[in-house]
Backbone:
């Protein structure tokens, strides 16, 4: 089996808000169709979004169960943290120590999907 393209698809209550957040975070653009939005980075599809009007926002870590999360590895956690907050992320769990060789912080996107900004090898 040959896979031509692999893309993660998010269910979201507001496709415009959700795709705009991820495009801003990843430095991409949004291609909007009627009920399907795609975030392109360097012209390549990275994330897609479909309508979910009954979406239940995950309440990480103790409430509504998350279905998935993304780990985004960054070169500069401080810069990435500031950028994530500036485009609308919410910090859910801060790291205790930034001097460790690897680690992560947990955030939520506008629809509540958790994701991590990670550093290290």
Residues:
């Amino acid at each position: 089996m040959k896979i031509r393209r692999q893309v993660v698809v998010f269910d979201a209550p507001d496709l415009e808000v959700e795709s705009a957040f991820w495009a801003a975070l990843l430095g991409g653009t949004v291609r909007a169709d009627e009920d399907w939005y795609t975030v392109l980075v360097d012209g390549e599809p990275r994330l897609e979004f479909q309508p979910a009007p009954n979406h239940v926002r995950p309440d990480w870590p103790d409430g509504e169960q998350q279905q998935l999360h993304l780990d985004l590895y960054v070169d500069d956690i401080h810069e990435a943290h500031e950028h994530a907050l500036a485009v609308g992320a919410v910090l859910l769990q801060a790291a205790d120590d930034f001097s460790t060789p690897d680690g992560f912080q947990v955030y939520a996107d506008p629809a509540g999907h958790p994701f991590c900004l990670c550093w290290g090898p």
